[in-house]
Amino acid sequence: MTYATVNPATGETVQEFPTATDAEVRDVVERSHRAFGSWRGTPVPERAARMRALAELYRERKRELAALLTEEMGKPARQAVGEVLLVASIYDFYAENAERFMAGEKLEPSTGGDAEVVLEPTGSILGIMPWNYPYYQVARLAAPNLMLGNTVVLKHAPSVPQAALVQEQLFREAGFPEDVYRNVFATNEQIAEIVIPARTVQGVSLTGSERAGSAVAELAGRHLKKVVLELGGSDPFIVLDADNLENTVKHAVLGRLGNTGQACTAAKRFIVVEEAYDRFVDAFAQAMDAVEPGDPTDRKTLLGPLSSVAARDGVAAQLQDAVEKGATVRAGGTPVDRPGAWMEATVLTDVTPQMRAYEEEIFGPVAVVHRVRDADEAVELANSSPFGLGGSVFAADVDAAREVASRIESGMVFVNEVTGTAPDLPFGGIKRSGVGRELGRFGIEEFANKKLIHAPRRAEKLPPQDEEVVAP
């Protein structure tokens, strides 16, 4: 495994970094555990002050931090700045709300006495993160857990090493003790053989592929470690009518091309009722054709390069398979002849179950459009996917859209907007899209000990020693 920055717009290798030795990985794990002993005792207001300082650093350096994303994984400049500002809002959110989320919950036990459930930290948490949102996905894990009192060991994707290092630096500049948040350039084997089995590591959070999630969940289960998994998605974008078509198409383009289509929650399957199908496809194909791949450093660019040539080639293979088996290309579909990892915005119709594009997640700027008879068939097709992360329903009748949304099997559904994210909204999926939730109140509970404390009320007497006790 090589940790290296390779600019996907040019193919140039910018910088390489050595992987950690086994001894260095063990040292990071041990230091994280030792730091937990003191960090858990740090008053919440002190943790919050550091978290606010961290948020301010992101805002102050938004251009510099965004430029790293553009260089390392090709994120268009304007979207990169947006990611940085979103991260700052997440750190601010938990600084402001963590103490309230951690407040004990009073119970009224049937057995009498006083009972309370309190949230407590559990220890060192391992994060395994992908390349497509290098700051945001770290923040989803780090913000709630550091505010709770846990410590974090972070293994980032090998293709975004500079983003990994700068985040560790920012935590230290914000006043966090050195070992409370630690980056480690570990190999997959070191994670499997050293980090996850360590008794001091109490949980694992992974955002990535199904294959990676399955492997990590199996290994974590063997060592009785809690996991949170945010995996792939093939989000449906359901169109119930042709009203407000211009607005619907605008959202369709943004939902498919954001981050060059490299988002788990990107709109990938466009499911359109028959009465609206022809008008939608014509308008959508025209809009996608109008989007030109451009320089990712230009703030006007919507569609940049894919993260790597290998990623581009993988999407191209899925597209070729569909075309060879009879799918129709309504927009794009032609390779971009220039150095780097470029691909046109593409629209496919007439996709059948025999094609890879029918069920596989396409992690790039290729949209698949399906025709269905009505809302019931739209729901059936949407739910036929093995994934269940997000989804969108567009209709002039909001109540009808909400009713359809209630029948979609996914962790998140948005009405008349594409799947989005915000610090206070829970994020996560079902089925093969993963387990657990991040962000909001739910994000701080995943790696917490929900401890019950039960005691007699002060006015109550202790039961007599010879009183019969019913054991559980």
Automatic annotation (TrEMBL):
Domain Aldehyde dehydrogenase: 3-452
Example of a GO MF term: succinate-semialdehyde dehydrogenase (NAD+) activity
Organism ancestry: Bacteria, Bacillati, Actinomycetota, Actinomycetes, Micrococcales
InterPro entries: Ald_DH/histidinol_DH, Ald_DH_C, Ald_DH_CS_CYS, Ald_DH_N, Aldehyde_DH_dom, ALDH_GabD1-like, GABD/Sad-like
Listed transmembrane segments: none
Family to which this protein belongs: Belongs to the aldehyde dehydrogenase family.
Protein species of origin: Kocuria sediminis
Keyword NADP in annotation: yes
Keyword NADP: yes
Highest taxon above the source species: Bacteria
Keywords assigned: NADP, Oxidoreductase
CDD domains (UniProt xref): ALDH_SSADH1_GabD1
Protein's name according to its UniProt entry: Aldehyde dehydrogenase family protein
